[in-house]
Amino acid sequence: NTGLHLRKRFVLSMWLDFDERAKQITVAQTKLRREQLEELRAQLNAFVFGFDEGIIADDIVLASAIYRHLCSFEQLPLDRMITMVKYIRKNVKHLELLPDENFLENGFVYFLPVDTDIIDKEKVNQHFYDFQATRV
Predict the structure, then answer these.
(1) Residue 88: how many other CB atoms lie within 10 Å
(2) Are 32 and 134 in contact (CB under 8 A)?
(3) Is residue 61 within 8 Å of residue 54, measured between CB atoms?
(4) DSSP reduced 3-state for 71
């Protein structure tokens, strides 16, 4: 399943980033590092679960996940919340239409812009070349 593979890659990328940042904590602070990594693990699991639920369910559940995990329960103008829900929905649909090779063979993912559904192919291609250059 491509979606499951993509989610696993996302979580792995996040953990690699967390681990890299945690290495900056000195050896004397290992207990603090362990506690912070445990907190990050719990937050990441809640984030993934919340957005999975929101994507599967309706816009209200998705808006709730946005409110909890992206906005940290802070007030957000209704038009911005609507924009965020629409943006996520259109990109989920977009990702479902992309060939599996984008994820499985080269690990490259691109998203539609907020304000349009038109893909700037030149920009995407340049990002892909930049992405490939970082993998060497």
Answers:
(1) 20
(2) no
(3) yes
(4) coil
Q: Per-residue pLDDT tens for 104-125?
A: 776 677 788 899 888 877 887 7
In angstroms, how far is the first alpha carbon of the chain from the final one?
27
Q: Which amino acid is at 57?
A: A
Domain ranges of the chain: 1-97, 101-135
For residues 84 and 74, what is the distance between their CA atoms, to the nearest angstrom? 15
What value, to the nearest 5°, has the Cα angle with vertex 49 and ends 91 and 17?
80
Q: What distance in Å separates the CA atoms of residue 108 and residue 132, rounded to the nearest whole number? A: 9
- Residues 28-39 pLDDT 10s: 677 877 887 888
Note the pTM of the prediction, 2 decimals: 0.72
Tens-place pLDDT, residues 42-94: 888 888 889 999 999 999 999 999 999 888 888 889 999 999 999 999 999 88
DSSP class of 67? I
Tell me if 112 sits within 8 A of 91, measured CB to CB: yes
